[in-house]
Amino acid sequence: GFLFQNSSAPRSIEIWIVLSMIGLKTMIRSSTLSCKSKFTRCLIGSQPRFLSTKPKFKDEEWSSRKGKQKEYGAKSKSKSYGTYQGDALHFGDEAPRTSLLMELHDRGAGVLHDVLKFFWKYDVNVSRIESRPVRIGEQGEKLFDFFVDFYGQRSDSNIQKLLSELRPITDKLLILDKKEVRWFPQHISELDLIANRTLDAGTDLESDHPGFNDAVYRARREHLAEVAKNYKWDKPIEKIEYTVDEIATWGAVWDRMEVLWENYACKEYLHSMNLLKESCGYSRDNIPQQRDISDFLLESTNFRMRPVAGLLSSRDFLNGLAFRVFFSTQYIRHHSKPLYTPEPDICHELLGHAPMFVSNDFADFSQEIGLASLGASDEDIEKLARCYWHSVEFGLCEEGGVRKAYGAGLLSSFGELEYACGGNQDEKPEIKPWDPKVAAYQEFPITTYQPVYFLAESLQDAKQQMRKYCEELPRPFFAFHNAQTNTVNIDRPIRRSKELADDVSS
Fold it and tell me: What is the dihedral of CA 109, 111, 116, 120, to 10 degrees?
């Protein structure tokens, strides 16, 4: 079913009874519990075509439908799947949706039923109902505002009949304009549009980089960058034949970190690392293949790795997490300084990040940040990026009164791991309780040890607090990931910015 919360218990009961009585035919697939006590949020299934447990469109079918992207894009002046037909957003083969605002005065029990029965009468599927707090009118009467999203558009004959029935029994009836938001991917295939928008190409080395003057190393980086750029979402990840120098560099990092993991890594990391040793060939003498790790994560927590040529913007990187996709580099640091890297490399990605994605709590935590980033403002992207940095990269959790690391930046750095977890008694960093509202404003350095670390009671505690923070952000919509179709469904009609869609497609 669905979950909702309201400050008025009788109204909540009425909504529940009414929706049960009218038997809305939409398949209920996703639900949410809003912690906002000032209004009721009621979410009902996202797509009426799902009338059984078997989805109509599977991942492989999206691949064969790529040709339609160009057709849809021509209609909307963007190369994205989302288009508008009449008054409503049309995404792929999903039915278009329309939003209404209805104002009703209190006529006693059953006022909502009197309205919603017409949706049933004209076979209109409701996707969302949201009520606002009761208002007092000029005559002292109670007024209720209900926002309703439903499938269909104003030009449909059954919708016209519905509206004609609603007008006489509502005090106000408005068809709402669609809110325009920053472009964001709605299907995993659209990550192809942003994956190559790297801030650096993976080959643009600074003059102080250890490999700057090494022509062989630079050529290797260029090759791996091209491999990443050519990757598509529905293709297997290309296997990499690592060189003797690369494996030796990996081994040097492994040897330095292994003892520190036993002392300072969280229990989830240690458990996951043992599984990766058994299933993906993790060892000091072997660099595991990203394809094998991704396949293992898919089976374990429905997460996956995706090759990327270099660093992405915070928005693009976080958008990937909404689909449980982690953008991962494939190059390794220069062999002349195996314990130093000025940028994320496979030692950081595969030794720091990948093991934590085997944990359901950590995987869910990461996706919460990703879903909140979809369509978010630039200001909120910065807040979410800081939360990510202070948790996924440098987060600490408590185990039996002892600080343990779950952040990848710590789990792949021998010096900072010991420093953050209290191994160095001469230097003690500032430790703050994990609080996303605080972490969202905590600035951080990228070239030195962190001056502040955030300590969660557990990974479960970190996830719950992050989820609550994301729910309270002023988001333009609420997004839900459908793992069956690798699609993000949203709870209301919106318009993805066409300018940004053109930009990512160019």
Answer: 60
Q: Give dist(CA 308, CA 91) in Å, integer.
A: 27
Considering the candidates 130, 246, 268, 393, report the single residue annotated as catalytic. 393
Whole-structure pTM value: 0.73
At 325, list the tokens: 């996709």
- The span from the CA of 125 to the CA of 85, in Å, is 18
Q: Residue 393 catalytic?
A: yes
Q: Confirm whether 412 is a catalytic residue.
A: yes
Could you confirm whether 348 is annotated as catalytic? Answer: yes
The catalytic position among 334, 348, 390, 481 is 348
Whether 481 sits among the annotated catalytic residues: the reply is: no
The number of beta carbons lying within 10 Å of the beta carbon of residue 138 is 6
Q: Which of 412, 413, 458, 481 is catalytic?
A: 412
Residues 128 and 43 sit within 8 Å (Cβ to Cβ): yes
In this structure, the strands spanning 142-151 and 172-175 are unpaired
Q: Convert the pLDDT of each residue in 101-158 to its tens digit.
A: 888 877 666 677 888 899 989 999 988 887 776 777 777 777 888 888 888 888 899 9
Q: What tens digit of pLDDT does each residue of 192-226 get? A: 999 999 986 556 788 889 988 999 999 999 999 99
- How distant is the alpha carbon of residue 201 from its chain centre? 24
The helix (H) or strand (E) run that includes residue 90 is: strand 88-91
As a whole number of Å, the CA-based R_g of the chain is: 25
Residue 219: CB atoms within 10 Å: 11
Q: Which residues pair with 174 in a beta bridge?
A: 101
Pick from 281, 283, 288: nearest CA to 305: 288
Active site residue: 353, 359, 366, 458, which one? 353
Backbone angles phi and psi of 295, in degrees to 5: -65, -40
